[in-house]
């Protein structure tokens, strides 16, 4: 084998290892969802408390991405990837052994530091290793892995937690992480250290981390308390702090000779288009996975594993289309492909909303699942390559980091906005239709209050529970609750459709085709 062939084969082996790291990091954002009910029993606590197993990872993951991206650009991306993998693997093992919920929450926050590094540094390394059309193919494969990891969490998490218990979803990271680290160590050449002679912009790193933390935490507070107004101090304080620290961050970065972030990136229309698409992808398609999983488990009654199986019509497209996205991106207009894919997603949400009736069956979900799966499978690979097009070598890490941050912020924003739309539509329907003739107004108001507090998904379980079975007007109650539930699901579907349609317009206007466009 010639040196050139060996170098070529090493690149593709490196891509496998880096893709595995990305798969693990993103999978751990969603894999825990289906294991939460098991954790509630294991730790003898409430569902609300256990949700911090997800929130602690989400917050920490979003906070560290930009900081680690900059450090990788400055001191070597291979070093940062391997260090991130060590943190991820050790924290995963500790999470599986967690004796209580507090230990698990802390472990998840530490694990997310490793996961954030794996995610953003892997993208930067792929962009450094591959050039030209090969980069398009490699980024297409990486994007397909990202899409697959995000939507396959219910299937993998359900299978592991049902077969071996919830610790298995963490233990599986240990052998996979060691394997990926060894491959990266053997096949990846270290990138130049672009930070020689520069001071670390510690103030910029702290300000960016605090701003992102405040924004994500404020959105989580709104998610946990949907009936609180945005002006409530519990929410407004955090979002206000995020805005303040963002303004200070921008002011500081503009004054520094070697800032953490080159704000001139945002003068590049292509880059702005990429982060808008990333935000739309997170806030519509990925955030929707939360509600789709809840629909299948809490309303349709599928187990965690069966929920994952029934989402295969959506997840399978990343495997089918992943290998060809690089070819499509190099032979056709990238911006047209991305905007067109977002339009396909819009059709998927319209089909999803149309399926939300009292006669809902799994067959009704096949079309929207397929359309959303195709859209996700095309957008992710193309977005990564488009976003990094023309990026300077020393800024590849930061560029990929910003795309990842906007994707993650999009998920946090989307879960809140889609959830609020669902809750508002649900409440509105209950208020307009909840009338039990022959019963006193106070009694009716009390019963309605029970279902308002329960929320869209839990209300179905309450209405069809044994405690309500002998209620004289249970049929009327169940009919209204079902109508309210489907009104809420239709509402969030149309909101998601609006997000991707805006993303389609923005991507068509701002994205360019080819790597030669000027910044």
UniProtKB/TrEMBL annotation:
Domain of life: Bacteria
Primary location class: membrane
Major facilitator superfamily (MFS) profile domain span: 14-515
Keywords: Cell membrane, Membrane, Transmembrane, Transmembrane helix, Transport
Family matches, as PANTHER family: BLR6921 PROTEIN, MAJOR FACILITATOR SUPERFAMILY MULTIDRUG TRANSPORTER MFSC
NCBIfam families: efflux_EmrB
Location of this chain's protein in the cell: Cell membrane
Zinc-finger as UniProt keyword: no
Membrane-crossing residue ranges in chain numbering: 12-36, 48-68, 80-98, 110-130, 137-156, 168-188, 200-220, 235-252, 272-292, 312-330, 337-353, 365-383, 404-421, 485-511
Signal peptide: none
Membrane topology per record: Multi-pass membrane protein
Keyword Metal-binding among record annotations: no
Protein name: MFS family permease
GO terms, molecular function: transmembrane transporter activity
Gene Ontology, cellular component aspect: plasma membrane
